[in-house]
Amino acid sequence: MSRPITAVKLVLLGEAAVGKSSLVLRFVSNDFQENKEPTIGAAFLTQRCVIGDQTIKFEIWDTAGQERFASLAPMYYRNAQCALVVYDVTKPASFIKARHWVKELHEQASPNIIIALVGNKCDLVEGEGNEQNRKVAKEEGEQLAQEENLVFFETSAKSGLNVKEVFIALGSKIPSNVQLNIQNDSATSANACNC
Amino acid sequence: MSIRRPSMAERRSSMTQEGSLRPPVVPHLAGLEKPLPETVPEACDVVIAGTGLTESILAAALAWQGSSVLHIDANDYYGDTTATLTIDQLKTWVERVNKGEIKGYQDAVLYIPRGNEFKSKDFGIDLTPKVLFCKSDLLSLLVTARVYKYLEFLPLSSFHFFENDNFEKMTSTKQDIFTNQTLSLATKRSLMKFIKFSLDWESHPDVWSPYKDASIETFLQEQFKLEKAQIFELIFSIGLCNNNETHTPEALARIKRYLISYDVYGNFPVMYSKYGGAGEISQGFCRSAAVAGATYKLNTKLVSFDPKTKIAQLSDNSCVKINEQIIISPSQAPTDSKFLSKQNYEIQRLTVIVKKDCTQWFHDNESAAVVVFPSGSLESNNKQAVQAIIMGEGSGITAKGTCVWYMSTIETGKRGRDDLEAALKAMEGSILRESSDLDTQDYFDNANGMLNSVKLGQSFKDFVPKEKIQYILKFYYIQFTSIPHAGVVNPNLYRKNSVHVEDDVDAPDRGVIYSSLPSSEISYDGIVTASKILYEKVVGSDDDFFDVDFEDDDDEGSIANNLESAIAEDDDDDEHIVEPGAAPVEFAEDMEL
């Protein structure tokens, strides 16, 4: 193996039907740099991507519907290094929910989790006459991202707009020696990092 | 019995070609195929109440088999009777037990001294602490079901037993036996002979069958001429038996369990899951069930079930039509339930968190140990053993510089509590002697720099420590169960209450199947069996219990027979666990999405 591979646990959060899974499926099924074909195991989706001089292996955890009745287990957040908080630019309620998830992440997840705020379904507001479909201004997203120190993108899982950019942005924020990082920040053990 | 439904794989693949590879299993991807409903389903095949480990394994098995499962829990956390709780959750739990709101428990006492610097979330206390044997049905299932991917396992190799006011080191391996200078040559030979026999005891009934109703102690004395010290070690530490009267075949099976588990993944017989034991594993199986389409709803309990209409009424005011069965943990039985089976067996537990790291008891870089107090070893002259699991900060369940001591006994009434207190006192004395800074010379044996607890205990036997142990928490409770101590799980424990359908029309639990409360067993043994029995009650047979071909996202495609990467650091490919002898995993390289 030529490069070190860093396994990174990424969790997905967002209101139902904002396109969380579509976003991930677009990411893992697109021919993406030197990646292999995506595979779906029983546990979670994985996708490798090469960023700079390291290979990041994203282990992407879907909520599997457990968030529906506020029944996400602590296990979901445990050792997550990245989170994708997704809302739908045509649904204001989903943006309110996104704020809630960011707050939840600050409470439940490790303190230096890298969070991306993603306004999805951009394709619905593009083109002539469609601008009125937009219900969440780009500035609102940007402002929240700035307040909470989040990575921010508006995407379209349908067209593929900005999808890989989100993951690259997240991946490039991962310190190259993740193991060291984990040792420093958590009250857990020296051989953590089976994330 | 119910009609067999197509499995997940069969149902999800619309293009099952004949003669080709079996279709790969595609997990449920929430929100993709269809928006999820905001309310609980109006109908489902199975309702399960309680997210304890047995029920969670059952939920996952049923969901992957193709049943539509609604899994609820009255609590606002996962795990139920096998939960891992924060201090705040523990406080609530104790209050509820003492109000009689959680069936199967009583006399809970929680003592938390004021003024410590810790946060509630720094701790994860297991209600049912357990260790996982490296060769066991649960371990195989974790691998088959891929649930191990959600978890992290750590090794545990230190088994101590307490005798003559001392912690003795175990002589459990052949190496130990050879190098142990306190053993006579004759004893070494007898021990070796016994170990060889025990690895294959089932095929030598000529040796043990005359003793099948006799105690293991008698058997070891008469057949193998072993001395008391070795016998006690075999019975209590290796066999983890509750007393020396355990019948020979049962004890032999338990001794063998330890010996065959040793060296499977390294120089240790058991492992434990980081961040919490059964509570963590329950969450893993619940996630697996959710991935296969099960619906989860916490804070919800069963109010009543009508076996004629097959409608269950839930505490969130919803009504669910159940096509098949409803399975309930006794801890979540509806108010005024009438058909809960007798919980005849008692377990007493005492859990403390001390402000000491207790690394003296751990082997090398490990963070846990098992300590056993055999019959008659304590000041209280205990009849039953007290078993203890010790977990330090590396276990992820306790704050830096602290340690959790989980103690339990099957002794009943006041005696049980006295035994637990005596064991606590013995451990306290021992850790103070061993951690005192009086004279470090005496603490290390020159040969390997490791702590020699035998020597230490002897030289400081009358040492009265000035220091006192600081407790962060002390937590005692009694639990009941229908599973006999050290017994096999009996299918009759899970009899459906259908015989009562005609009478007691007011009972809210007619026609439900109760699962069982956790047994006194310190390992996970018996849990998979219980889940399988319940599974069979629903599906008709356990033939296809987790009979799923999962794809593996492993690039290299090689499957190594080791678990090293999963229990040690992540060395970039942690999906190589496969049970030796397991059916080969099918890999599907390409996936149509």
From TrEMBL, chain A:
<dbReference type="GO" id="GO:0003924">
    <property type="term" value="F:GTPase activity"/>
</dbReference>
<dbReference type="Pfam" id="PF00071">
    <property type="entry name" value="Ras"/>
</dbReference>
<keyword id="KW-0547">Nucleotide-binding</keyword>
<dbReference type="GO" id="GO:0005525">
    <property type="term" value="F:GTP binding"/>
</dbReference>
<dbReference type="InterPro" id="IPR001806">
    <property type="entry name" value="Small_GTPase"/>
</dbReference>
<dbReference type="InterPro" id="IPR027417">
    <property type="entry name" value="P-loop_NTPase"/>
</dbReference>
<protein>
    <recommendedName>
        <fullName>Ras-domain-containing protein</fullName>
    </recommendedName>
</protein>
<dbReference type="InterPro" id="IPR005225">
    <property type="entry name" value="Small_GTP-bd"/>
</dbReference>
From TrEMBL, chain B:
<dbReference type="InterPro" id="IPR017230">
    <property type="entry name" value="Mrs6"/>
</dbReference>
<protein>
    <recommendedName>
        <fullName>Rab proteins geranylgeranyltransferase component A</fullName>
    </recommendedName>
</protein>
<comment type="function">
    <text>Substrate-binding subunit (component A) of the Rab geranylgeranyltransferase (GGTase) complex. Binds unprenylated Rab proteins and presents the substrate peptide to the catalytic component B. The component A is thought to be regenerated by transferring its prenylated Rab back to the donor membrane.</text>
</comment>
<dbReference type="GO" id="GO:0005829">
    <property type="term" value="C:cytosol"/>
</dbReference>
<feature type="region of interest" description="Disordered">
    <location>
        <begin position="1"/>
        <end position="24"/>
    </location>
</feature>
<dbReference type="InterPro" id="IPR036188">
    <property type="entry name" value="FAD/NAD-bd_sf"/>
</dbReference>
<dbReference type="Pfam" id="PF00996">
    <property type="entry name" value="GDI"/>
</dbReference>
<dbReference type="GO" id="GO:0016192">
    <property type="term" value="P:vesicle-mediated transport"/>
</dbReference>
<dbReference type="InterPro" id="IPR018203">
    <property type="entry name" value="GDP_dissociation_inhibitor"/>
</dbReference>
<dbReference type="GO" id="GO:0005634">
    <property type="term" value="C:nucleus"/>
</dbReference>
<dbReference type="GO" id="GO:0007264">
    <property type="term" value="P:small GTPase-mediated signal transduction"/>
</dbReference>
<dbReference type="GO" id="GO:0005092">
    <property type="term" value="F:GDP-dissociation inhibitor activity"/>
</dbReference>
<comment type="similarity">
    <text>Belongs to the Rab GDI family.</text>
</comment>
<dbReference type="GO" id="GO:0005968">
    <property type="term" value="C:Rab-protein geranylgeranyltransferase complex"/>
</dbReference>
